[in-house]
Design brief:
The chain is mostly beta strands and 324 residues long. 0% of the residues lie in helices and 47% in strands. The chain contains no helices and 44 strands. A 12-stranded parallel sheet has the order 11-14-17-20-22-25-28-31-34-37-40-43, with no helix packed on it.
Length: 324
């Protein structure tokens, strides 16, 4: 059986059978139709595909409303995907959405592997990262990331690999590594919080007036970045490692602070080779141990009374005479 969708359609469940001798082919069409799966009491699998399913430009909408149930999202390649019901949704495995992923209701437990998004991400429900990685792969256009839903939303690790422009429309929390290898990122105007490493191997990062908050333990910055505001404050001894020979620019406020008995050490990725910092605005430094740093800004970083230790090979820092 070969069926092509001629309009939007709502069904409770759908099976595309791949049994030999009666293999089904379902084409959802190229006119932006919606296939809605709306079994009110659904649990388990409501979309089963063993035959051929062509998504076209259509949207698949999981709209089940069983608040005590759980629906499995098959590991397929979707054109656009909507999760609109008051349901718990879990991924059967890594999958790809070529367009937008919209969570307008319920709770979505992402795959523990990789969720690849070729469009934007809009969350008005609850997103559980499940220790997986979200890859934003769009190659063109302007994509929007609005991650603030009704719960404590956070990504585990995120990667930007395509040449699109991404606008972060809300606070963004990353519990793992933040990686950019291409494209243009407009950071949120509020806070981008990263607990893992901050890795930039390519592309353009626009601070957008917001703050990048490094709130993990020992962390590493890779690549060259211009931050609007950069903050790392610690309450236990930690190390922040900068890339040797690269320059980090902070146009607004740079806050690097440890505490009494909890020194924040600033180090180069290659001992003996200076890392460069250009703090163009306010500097807030306290309880630091600094080594191999080159402040390339014309105004020195003043450390008097701030409990900052000079561990050698530093330029552009004003350390008190005879300071340890």
């Amino acid at each position: 059986n070969k069926v092509t969708l001629a309009s939007s359609m709502t069904v409770d469940t759908l099976t595309v059978d791949g049994t030999v001798g009666q293999a089904d082919t379902l084409n959802l069409g190229s006119s932006g139709y919606t296939l809605k799966l709306a079994n009110a009491g659904a649990t388990g699998t409501v979309l089963t595909v063993s035959g051929a399913l062509t998504m076209g430009t259509s949207t698949v909408d999981f709209a089940a409303t069983n608040s005590s149930g759980a629906v499995t999202i098959p590991a397929l390649t979707y054109s656009s995907l909507v999760l609109s019901g008051n349901e718990t949704y879990s991924a059967a495995g890594s999958f790809t959405v070529n367009g937008n992923l919209t969570i307008s209701g319920g709770t979505f437990s992402a795959p523990s592997g990789t969720l690849t998004l070729g469009g934007g991400f809009d969350n008005d429900g609850v997103f559980s990262h499940n220790a997986g990685t979200v890859v934003f792969s769009a190659s063109s256009g302007t994509q929007h990331i609005d991650a603030v839903g009704t719960g404590s939303e956070a990504f585990n690790s995120i990667t930007f690999s395509g040449n699109a422009t991404w606008n972060m429309d809300s606070d963004l929390t990353v519990n793992g590594t933040f990686t950019q290898s291409a494209g243009t990122i407009y950071a949120p105007q509020t806070t981008l919080a990263v607990a893992g490493n901050f890795v930039r191997n390519g592309g353009t990062f626009v601070g957008n007036g917001g703050m990048v908050l490094l709130n993990g333990s020992d962390q590493t910055i890779n690549g060259t970045t211009t931050f609007a505001n950069l903050t790392k404050t610690v309450t236990a001894p930690r190390t922040l490692t900068f890339p040797a020979g690269e320059t980090q620019t902070v146009t607004g406020t740079m806050t690097l602070r440890g505490a009494d008995g909890a020194v924040l050490s600033l180090r180069s990725s290659t001992s003996g080779t200076q890392w460069k910092i250009d703090p163009q605005g306010t500097r807030s430094v306290q309880y630091l141990d600094v080594k191999d740093s080159n402040n390339v800004n014309a105004t020195k970083i003043i450390t008097a009374g701030s409990h900052v230790t000079n561990s050698g090979n530093n330029t552009g820092w004003a350390f008190p005479p005879n300071a340890p």
